[in-house]
What does this fold into?
Amino acid sequence: MAVKSLETPLTGKVTFKCTLQYANGDGANNGYLAFGDTAEEATLVKCGLRQKMATAAIIQGSLAAGEGATTPCTTDYGKPYELTVTVDLAAGRVVFKGGGVTVEAKLDRPMERITHIGYCLKDTIVDFSPIEASSVQ
It folds into this structure.
């Protein structure tokens, strides 16, 4: 997990974008763009791709639990994938687009502002581009 504190918290409706590329050739690849109102892994919302499980997922809470909203998604080693996450804090909704699919989920707990963003992965190596953040009107 690599998460940084934002200088100015984000509120309202926000979109995050980054690019993910698997760097572990064994097929157990995964990578998540993460955000939350604390830096604690168990409270972060993680949106990403899981090659071996062939799913795109929104995981709320610990990656060890591995539970969350998922949809089937096949990804290839060596190919870059754009991850786009749109969060509507007032509505309590998150939409993740990546690998040609879309996953939607209701936030498990209310979040007034996003104070931390970063990356999470589990037992693998992934290259990420910097995260771009923008407010949505």
